[in-house]
């Protein structure tokens, strides 16, 4: 019960890594707001969480629609969560999008979408939640989800890599800027993770690298030193650590959780 009586917001919390973190936070005693742009997915996530963890979690769980590209939506989310739970102690900035193309084929629309969600949306969500923490005179924990793609370049994934590198940089700057308020900002950099999104990623690699469907996913899984792709639940422990009192002296760091894919 490392997070007992804490209140967390998990963006992109209705599926994948976000949902795994929500499950673990509930198990650790937190109240959790599942913030997602997809209201149907929110309803499905809440139903599955209650079925798995029991009706007891209903009093500690809420869903809230959030479009991180819309600052009014961000403000409404903060107001809704603070209205329900009294405040926010933990933010997990998990919402993100992915696209890929050769450098000569990257479109402005693809660039804008990835940076608007992965960087701009992440920052202004962080800013709004941090302001609410400061206004209440409380400390807090903010966790930004980056990626191993933010540690290096990839020929077909230039914009996604750049957006996730920006997340690491923002984690450093915001970590330094907010620790004086008692707010720890840190990050997690997953490697290749077996989520439904990887079916789309695999299809794009099949298109641009002329591979059969499924081959890229198999190859990247085999290349992980641990011996397999990551699973959403593999990231929940790090998310609990960075949200708990155990990480009070950890500031502006991005933790690689990738089975040994990247060392930094």
Automatic annotation (TrEMBL):
Domain Ketoreductase: 6-191
Pfam family, one: adh_short_C2
Keywords annotated in UniProt: Oxidoreductase
InterPro entries: KR_dom, NAD(P)-bd_dom_sf, SDR_fam
Highest rank taxon of the organism: Bacteria
Signal peptide residues on this chain, from the entry's feature table: none
Transmembrane stretches, start-end: none
PANTHER family: 3-OXOACYL-[ACYL-CARRIER-PROTEIN] REDUCTASE (PTHR42760:SF133), SHORT-CHAIN DEHYDROGENASES/REDUCTASES FAMILY MEMBER (PTHR42760)
Similarity comment: Belongs to the short-chain dehydrogenases/reductases (SDR) family.
Entry protein name: Sorbitol dehydrogenase
Organism per entry: Litchfieldella qijiaojingensis
Phylogenetic classification of the source organism: Bacteria, Pseudomonadati, Pseudomonadota, Gammaproteobacteria, Oceanospirillales
């Amino acid at each position: 019960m490392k997070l007992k009586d804490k209140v967390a917001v998990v963006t992109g919390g209705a599926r994948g890594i976000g949902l795994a973190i929500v499950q673990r936070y509930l198990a650790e005693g937190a109240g959790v707001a599942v913030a997602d742009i997809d209201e149907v997915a929110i309803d499905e996530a809440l139903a599955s969480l209650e079925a798995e963890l029991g009706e007891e979690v209903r009093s500690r769980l809420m869903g809230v629609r959030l479009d991180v590209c819309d600052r009014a939506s961000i403000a409404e989310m903060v107001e809704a969560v603070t209205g329900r739970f009294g405040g926010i102690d933990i933010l997990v900035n998990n919402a993100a999008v992915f696209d890929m193309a050769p450098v000569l084929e990257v479109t402005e629309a693809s660039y804008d979408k990835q940076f608007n969600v992965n960087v701009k949306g992440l920052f202004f969500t962080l800013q709004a939640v941090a302001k609410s923490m400061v206004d209440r005179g409380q400390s807090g924990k903010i966790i930004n989800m980056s990626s191993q793609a933010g540690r290096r370049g990839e020929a077909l994934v230039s914009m996604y890599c750049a957006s996730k590198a920006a997340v690491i940089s923002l984690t450093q700057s915001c970590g330094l800027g907010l620790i004086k308020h008692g707010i720890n900002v840190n990050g997690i950099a997953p490697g290749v993770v077996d989520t439904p999104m990887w079916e789309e990623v695999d299809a794009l690699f099949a298109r641009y690298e002329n591979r059969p469907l499924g081959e890229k996913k198999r190859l990247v899984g085999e290349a992980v030193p641990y011996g397999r792709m990551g699973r959403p639940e593999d990231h929940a422990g790090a998310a609990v650590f960075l949200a708990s009192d155990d990480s009070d002296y950890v500031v502006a760091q991005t933790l690689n959780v990738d089975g040994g894919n990247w060392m930094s």
